[in-house]
User: What shape does this take?
Amino acid sequence: MAHEHAEVVVVGGGIVGAFVAERLARAGTDVIVVDPTPGGGASFGNAGMLVPSYCMPMANPAVLADGLRALVGGDSTIALGRPVTRATLGWLGRFGLASRPGRARRDAGALAALASGAVDAYAELADTEGIDIGLRRSGWLYVCGRPGALSSQMRAARQLVDLGIRHEVLRGAELHEREPGLAGGIAGGVLYPDDASLDPAAATQAVLSSAVRHGATFHRHAILDVESAGRGIVRAVRTAAATITARAFVLAAGADSRRAGRLFGLRLPVEAGVGWSLTLPMPNGLVGQALIGADDHIVVSPGATTVRVTGGMRIGGRADAAADLMAVQNLRTAAERLLPPLRDLPAGTAWRGARPLTPSGLPIIGSLGRNLVVATGHGTLGMTLAPATSRAVASLLTHGTAPFPSRPRSGDPS
Assistant: This one.
């Protein structure tokens, strides 16, 4: 078996691992990224949201209510897959404990701090690499068909003002001027003007390209085993092709973090949350505004020649082709109800992928061994939080501390 060596091995080549590798390589560190398909997974098929406004963690009372409806089989944007494992039930229990209102508001500050500067980081990346990543600084608009939904969104927006998150409330002609394709009879919307959107696949590829340009190399195999020297020290990772030794290791395996963590002797509280997207070919200008349908919890992200619709979350269970097909059909139906011009578009490309969820909604970013740093659990905010996560990981490897105003913990309730 071959032997490879680097100063740092990054396990995972999604957007978080890519940014970590790029930052380290740019600083002159010898880096190997271990991933069979770098740039794949949720980093490829998500909605491309750069949303500091989305800093209220998933663990909050409203989402908890959705989860309870899922448990009893009621209508919910969160579905509970079958069979339900003990690990998933344990995760749900910790999620319930983490959903206390006071904690959710406190943790929103930590996420807002991590999200700060994300849009500028991608703009700088696109300019430096000369790659069009589809960055659009048009903000994100939460569209509410029902007055009750609008009132709820306005309350949520007011809670973020102290965190420096700006918003505008739009109604009537002002709303339809912002997005002429919206259906009639909509109560209003809340616009977060400092948010942005991008092409997630192009952005991830830009980060990976920058990492390679600065000297990072890629080992396109999955890790099968980890060699430990005891006392929390990792000596090597093994794949089918090589044994790879390093001074330090970074685990950034996304939705695969629970399995990968076990290889490192860790019990990471990360659950895979399956989501879906549908990418439709679109004439330029048919939809111009990135928006979220608050009533149906769907996301519509327009690009230059396509529009991507995402939504839904299934926690636990096995893959189910019939459920995937129904989820994608529901996405299109909800999108067409919100934006009737989408009805004229041809069939698109469906995608299914998983996001790494922690019970608290905070990512796990920290040293969990003498030479092991973990960076995972970013949920639906991987694109937004990746730049700051890379800064934190670099600081942990260099100084042993991370520059968090309120450092995210391991994801367990406290």
Q: What stands out?
A: The chain has one domain: 2-399. The radius of gyration is 21 Å. The longest strand covers residues 271-281.
